[in-house]
Specification:
Helix content: 55-70%
CATH class of the largest domain: Mainly Alpha
Distance between the termini: 85 Å
CATH topology of the largest domain: Na+/H+ antiporter like fold
Number of helices: 23
Order of helices and strands: HHHHHHHHHHHHHHHHHEHEHEHEHEHEH
Number of domains: 2
Largest sheet: 6 strands, parallel
Length: 559
C-alpha cells in the first residue's frame, strides 16, 4: 500500500474518531452534534490544533461527496407539488423573511465597513449567509420536542423549504457574479431550468417505471437514486454549473414520487458519514480568532436573533396566525445554516469572498448554533415572556394570539390508523373496512412496497405510501408520529431485514402515544412483544382456529 493511501486512511480515521468524541461531549452538554464535528477538525488542524491531519485535500475530496449527498437529500425534501399547496401567506412569509434579512444584514455590515468592490462580494455573501437557517439543527430539535405538526412548527418548516429555494437560486447566480451581464445570468438560469425540466421529464416517463420495476428490491431503489444523483451532477459540471446544483436538481426531480422518503431514510447513514468529514474539514480551516473577531461573531449571533424576530413575527401576525406563533417561529430559525457555509465555501472557490469572511461566518455559526439550541428548547417560555412585554406596551392583544390556525389548504392529510404491509391480513382488513365501514378508509394509511396496489387503495379512499419496513426511519417522513393505532400485518417469516420485535422498538420511539398491534407466527412470541409495549398481538393460526370453532358451533346449531 502506498504512503499516500496510508496517510489518507489515517486522516479519515482521525477525523471520524475526534468528531465522534467531541460530538459525544456536545451531546452530553445538549449542544448540536455539528459543533462536535467542527471542534474535532479544529483540534486536528494546524491553525489552532495539533496538526495531526496532513492530507487536507483528501479529506476535502471525501467531504465533497458528503456535501453532494446532503444537497441531494435536501432536494428530495423539496416537493414542488406540496410547495404549491402551502398557500399565499406562506410564500409571502418566505419571501419577506429572506429579503428583509438580506437587507438588514447588508445594511448593518455596510455600517461596519464592508463593501461590494471589484471582485469582492463579502457584503452580499454575508447578507445571504445570515438569512438562511439550519435545517439539520431545527428539524432535529423540533422532532425531539414533537413540535413539527404545531402551527409554529409548520411555519418553521415552510420557511426552511423556501430558504432552500432562495439558496438554490443564489447558487445558480454565483458563477456569474464577477461578470453580472443580464445575458449571462439569464443563460445560467436558462440552463438550470432546462436541466430541471429534462430531469423531471426523464423521472416522469423513464425513472418512474425503473423504480416500479425494482420496488421489491429496496437496495436497488437506493442504488438507482444515487446513480441518478451522480449522473445529473456530471451533466451540471459539463455545462459549467456546480455539482452541488446538480445534486439539488436530481433530488427535486424524484421528490414527488413515493420512493423519495424511502431513499432519504436509507441515505441518511451514508450521508452522515461523509457530512461529518465535511464539517471536520471546515474545522481544519478555522483560523486562530482575534479578540475582535470573537466580539464580532458574538454580535452576529445576537444580530441573527433580532433580524429573525423583525422579519418573521410581524409578517406572521399580519397574516392572522398570532404574534406568539410568529415569535416562536423566529426563535426556531435563529441560527446560521450549514447551507451558508456551503455557499461561502463555493464563493471562496470563485474568488468572491475572503478567508476572513469565511472564518467569521464559521465562528458565528458555531456561536449561533449553541445559542439557538437553548432558544428552541425554551421557545414557548421565551415567546410568552416577550408576549407579556408586548401586551404591557399595548403592541399586541392576548386574544389575537391564541388558537391561531394554519390555513385549511396547508393541513396535511393526516391518517391516525397506519397499516404496515398489504399482504393477506392487510388485504383482508382493507376489504372488510371497505364493505362494513367505508368512512373509516379516510383514516387509514397503508404502507407497502408494491406500487401496483396504490391506485386500487386510493380508489377505495385509503392512502398509500411506499416504505421499506427494514428502515423504520422512513415512517417518520410519512407521518407515523400522528398515528393513534399502528398495525403491522406481516409476521417475521415475511418481513425482510427486521423483526416485529425490532420494529416495535423503533415504532415506540417514532410514535410514543400510539397503540401497536403486531403479528407473529407462533403463540410463544406473543409474551415478549406484549412485555415490550405491544397493545395486541395477532397470531394468524389462532385467529383462524377461533373462527373455525365458531363456524362449527354455529353450523351444529343449525342442524
Amino acid at each position: 500500500m502506498e504512503h499516500h493511501d496510508i496517510s489518507l486512511l489515517q486522516d479519515i480515521a482521525l477525523g471520524i474518531i475526534f468528531a465522534t468524541v467531541l460530538s459525544h461531549i456536545a451531546r452530553l452538554l445538549k449542544q448540536p452534534l455539528i459543533l462536535g464535528y467542527i471542534l474535532g477538525g479544529v483540534i486536528l488542524g494546524k491553525e489552532m490544533g495539533f496538526g495531526y491531519v496532513t492530507s487536507e485535500a483528501s479529506i476535502e475530496l471525501i467531504s465533497e461527496i458528503g456535501l453532494i449527498l446532503l444537497l441531494f437529500i435536501i432536494g428530495l425534501e423539496i416537493n414542488l407539488t406540496e410547495l404549491a399547496k402551502m398557500g399565499k401567506s406562506m410564500f409571502t412569509l418566505g419571501i419577506m423573511q429572506f429579503l428583509l434579512c438580506v437587507s438588514f444584514s447588508m445594511g448593518f455590515f455596510f455600517l461596519l465597513g464592508y463593501r461590494i468592490e471589484g471582485n469582492n462580494f463579502d457584503l452580499l455573501y454575508i447578507g445571504v449567509a445570515l438569512s438562511l437557517s439550519s435545517t439539520l439543527i431545527v428539524v432535529k430539535l423540533l422532532q425531539d420536542k414533537i413540535e413539527i405538526s404545531t402551527v409554529s412548527g409548520k411555519l418553521t418548516i415552510g420557511v426552511l423549504v423556501l430558504q432552500d429555494i432562495w439558496a438554490i437560486l443564489f447558487m445558480g447566480l454565483q458563477p456569474n457574479l464577477l461578470s453580472p451581464e443580464i445575458w449571462k445570468i439569464a443563460q445560467s438560469i436558462g440552463i438550470i431550468i432546462i436541466i430541471l425540466v429534462c430531469a423531471f421529464v426523464f423521472s416522469r416517463f423513464v425513472l418512474k417505471y425503473i423504480y416500479e420495476a425494482c420496488a421489491n428490491r429496496p437496495e436497488l431503489v437506493v442504488l438507482t437514486s444515487i446513480s441518478w444523483c451522480f449522473i445529473i451532477c456530471g451533466i451540471a459540471a459539463k455545462v459549467d454549473l456546480s455539482k452541488e446544483m446538480g445534486a439539488l436538481i436530481a433530488g427535486m426531480s424524484i421528490a414527488a414520487y413515493p420512493y423519495g422518503t424511502d431513499v432519504i431514510s436509507k441515505l441518511i447513514g451514508i450521508r452522515d458519514f461523509f457530512v461529518t468529514l465535511f464539517f471536520v474539514s471546515l474545522g481544519l480551516k478555522v483560523q486562530m480568532p482575534t479578540l475582535s473577531m470573537v466580539g464580532v461573531a458574538c454580535v452576529i449571533a445576537i444580530f441573527v436573533v433580532l433580524i429573525r424576530l423583525l422579519s418573521i413575527a410581524p409578517v406572521v401576525f399580519l397574516s392572522k396566525r398570532g404574534m406568539k406563533n410568529g415569535i416562536v417561529t423566529s426563535l426556531n430559525l435563529s441560527q446560521i445554516s450549514e447551507f451558508s457555509l456551503v455557499i461561502i465555501a463555493l464563493g471562496q472557490g470563485y474568488g468572491h469572498v475572503s478567508a476572513e469572511v469565511r472564518s467569521l461566518i464559521l465562528n458565528s455559526m458555531i456561536l449561533s448554533s449553541v445559542l439557538s439550541t437553548y432558544l428552541i428548547i425554551f421557545n414557548h417560555e421565551i415567546a410568552g415572556f416577550i408576549m407579556r412585554i408586548l401586551i404591557a406596551l399595548g403592541l399586541s392583544e392576548k386574544n389575537k394570539d391564541t388558537n391561531a390556525n394554519v390555513e385549511n389548504n396547508q393541513e396535511d392529510d393526516k391518517r391516525d390508523i397506519i397499516l404496515l404491509g398489504y399482504f393477506r391480513i392487510g388485504q383482508s382488513l382493507v376489504n372488510y373496512v371497505s364493505d362494513i365501514s367505508p368512512d373509516m378508509a379516510k383514516r387509514i394509511l397503508v404502507v407497502d412496497y408494491n406500487p401496483a396496489n396504490k391506485n386500487v387503495l386510493q380508489d377505495k379512499g385509503f392512502r398509500w405510501e411506499y416504505a421499506d419496513l427494514a428502515h423504520p426511519d422512513t415512517l417518520h417522513h410519512i407521518g407515523v408520529h400522528h398515528a393513534a393505532i399502528v398495525i403491522c400485518s406481516i409476521s417475521d417469516v415475511f418481513l425482510k431485514g427486521i423483526t416485529n420485535q425490532r420494529l416495535l422498538e423503533q415504532l415506540k420511539k417514532l410514535a410514543p402515544e400510539a397503540k401497536f398491534i403486531m403479528t407473529v407466527d407462533e403463540m410463544h412470541q406473543t409474551k415478549s412483544l406484549m412485555q415490550n409495549g405491544a397493545y395486541k398481538v395477532i397470531v394468524p393460526g389462532e385467529i383462524t382456529g377461533e373462527f373455525l370453532f365458531e363456524l362449527v358451533v354455529s353450523t351444529m346449531r343449525a342442524l
